[in-house]
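May I ask for an example protein's residues together with how it folds?

___
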Amino acid sequence: MEVVIVPDAKAGGELIAEAMAALVRRKPDALLGVATGSTPLPIYEALAAKVRAGQVDASRARICQLDEYVGLPAGHPESYRAVVLREVVEPLGLSEASFMGPDGSAEDIVGACEAYDRALAEAGGVDLQLLGIGTDGHIGFNEPCSSLASRTRIKTLTEQTRVDNARFFDNDLDQVPHHVITQGIGTILDARHLVLLATGEGKAEAVAQTVEGPLSALVPASALQLHRHATVVVDEAAASKLKLADYFRHTYADKPSWQGL
């Protein structure tokens, strides 16, 4: 696993955005998997700036979704589809036709999960999948003890997650969905390149367990240890519990060869 330690979130965003831009230059129709939340915003801002500056032509790039709420009506502003369209697709100047995601409003949710897995495969697979990480080591909505071979499926949100997300629903807990569709760990591992960004001291323990701990369903992100090309980008705070931090600084800080792989 490649671990790149950067000074702050902005530097991490710029580094990953350049890796994505390099991929799109090599493969204009690359399928880019995106995540929601505040952590990846510096990536999207930096990538959009490169598009505006003419440093990369992303017009043929495709975007796919990591997870989605179940039960929100089509067009709901807090559906993850709407968020990705707002924060990624529109700033990059892409059309909605470039976007792929699971149907969280389908009558047959299990069928919708299976259909999304098939659609990703039929699209040629994800070239680069962005990931965040929870303080408990979850990726996507794969909570601790999720199967490391799991595919796209429906999951029940914990009460704490619903409380945390209530701020996006006018602080009204009753509006927060109880279920989500998430790519499973096995689905995530199908991507050709996994890039996880973590910032802040609150993520330090999860990062250490992911990178240096044992492979364990208790820390779903540790499944990245199985991947042939996984890159973890962390700021100094999130790297603070890594025993091999000095090694990672020496090995990767001035050698970002992972961008061109």
Q: What stands out?
A: The chain has one domain: 2-252.
